[in-house]
Write a structure and sequence with these properties.
The complex is a heterodimer. Helix content of chain A is about 0%, strand content about 50%. Chain A is mainly beta. Classes of the chains: A mainly beta, B mainly beta. The interface between A and B is medium-sized, with 26 and 24 residues.
Chain lengths: ~110, ~120
C-alpha cells in the first residue's frame, strides 16, 4: 500500500459527460501529480500541484482541470468526454525534491 | 530541456540470465534519478533512487542501478532474472535545481523474462 488513495477505481461513462477523479496523497506530502496512461502507452504528465498551488502543466487538455484543496487532497475534472479519453488516470504524491513519488492504484476511465 | 530516454521499447531475457534496462537523462543541473516498475493494471511501484553518494544503488526485488555522470546514464540491472520480473519499467529524473519538484519520465521499457 503506497498510502495514496484514488477513487473511484473504475468509472464508465458516456461521451459528452463530466467526471471527477479524487486523490488523497500520503500524509504530509505536499506535491500531487496527475498522469494519464492509455493502453500500452507511457505516462503522460497532466498537472502538478504543490501545497494548493499549480506548479507545472503538461499535456492537459482544456476540457480537463484540477485543483488541490487545503486538506491537500486533489481532484481532476474531465468534461465533454470523448472516446479517446478512456485511460488509466494516476495520482502520485511526494514530500520533497529528493524523495520518490508514491502512486495510487489509478482510476480506469472508460468512455462509451 | 530536461529529458529521459529509454532507448529500448522491449527487452527480452531468459530466466536466470542477467538483465539490463537502459536509461539516459538530460538535466541542466544535477539529477535525482528514480526507477519504477508497473505490473499490469497496477500503479507504479518505486524500486530505487540515486540522490547522492555511492554510484551503485541497490533497491527492491534484487534490482540495482548504476549512476554514471559522464555518460548521463542510470541503467537498471539484476544479476539473475525471474519470470516474475516481467513488467513495464520506467526511469524518471528530477533536476536538483527545480524548485517545482517536477519529475521527467522515460517512455517505459517492457521487460519480458522467458522461462
Amino acid at each position: 500500500d503506497s498510502g495514496v488513495t484514488q477513487t473511484p477505481k473504475h468509472l464508465i461513462t458516456a461521451t459528452g459527460q463530466r467526471v471527477t477523479l479524487r486523490c488523497s496523497p500520503r500524509s504530509g506530502d505536499l506535491s500531487v501529480y496527475w498522469y494519464q496512461q492509455s493502453l500500452d502507452q507511457g505516462l503522460q504528465f497532466l498537472i502538478q500541484y504543490y501545497n494548493g498551488e499549480e506548479r507545472a502543466k503538461g499535456n492537459i487538455l482544456e476540457r480537463f482541470s484540477a485543483q488541490q484543496f487545503p486538506d491537500l487532497h486533489s481532484e481532476l475534472n474531465l468534461s465533454s468526454l470523448e472516446l479517446g479519453d478512456s485511460a488509466l488516470y494516476f495520482c502520485a504524491s511526494s514530500s520533497g525534491s529528493n524523495t520518490e513519488a508514491f502512486f495510487g492504484q489509478g482510476t480506469r476511465l472508460t468512455v462509451v | 530541456a530536461q529529458s529521459v530516454a529509454q532507448p529500448e521499447d522491449q527487452v527480452n531475457v531468459a530466466e536466470g540470465n542477467p538483465l539490463t534496462v537502459k536509461c539516459t537523462y538530460s538535466v541542466s543541473g544535477n539529477p535525482y534519478l528514480f526507477w519504477y516498475v508497473q505490473y499490469p493494471n497496477r500503479g507504479l511501484q518505486f524500486l530505487l533512487k540515486y540522490i547522492t553518494g555511492d554510484n551503485l544503488v541497490k533497491g527492491s526485488y534484487g534490482f540495482e542501478a548504476e549512476f554514471n555522470k559522464s555518460q548521463t546514464s542510470f541503467h537498471l540491472k539484476k544479476p539473475s532474472a525471474l519470470v516474475s520480473d516481467s513488467a513495464l519499467y520506467f526511469c524518471a529524473v528530477r533536476d536538483i535545481e527545480d524548485s517545482n519538484y517536477q519529475l521527467i519520465w522515460g517512455a517505459g521499457t517492457k521487460l519480458i523474462i522467458k522461462p
